[in-house]
Design goal:
This protein is of the alpha+beta class and 90 residues long. It is 26% helix and 24% strand. It has a five-stranded mixed sheet.
Length: 90
């Protein structure tokens, strides 16, 4: 098949995932760029890449562009998803 007739595949949006505090420690990096159309897809992608994040993701607050979101919420292309684990202290 020639390139002119190659089937185009829809591209998933790239999302930047930033890790804070214990999430950064578990991930071993400050951020990742993955693809996904929902918070669930994005968190699954980072968990597959960095399995040590699984327990953190289970209890973390997830923000998309600064707004708290649930797993079924959609993620826009170019969004930033932040993983904030529970903080202790006072």
């Amino acid at each position: 098949m020639s390139p002119d007739h190659a089937e185009e595949r829809p591209r998933q949006p790239a999302v930047t995932v930033r890790y804070w505090a214990g999430a950064r420690a578990a991930a071993g990096v400050g951020e990742d760029v993955v693809t996904g159309s929902s918070v669930r897809e994005v968190t699954a992608a980072v968990a597959a890449r960095r399995p040590a994040l699984l327990p953190v993701l289970a209890v973390a607050t997830l923000l998309v562009d600064g707004v708290r979101r649930g797993l079924d919420d959609l993620v826009e292309p170019g969004a930033v998803l932040e993983v904030l684990p529970p903080f202790a202290g006072g």
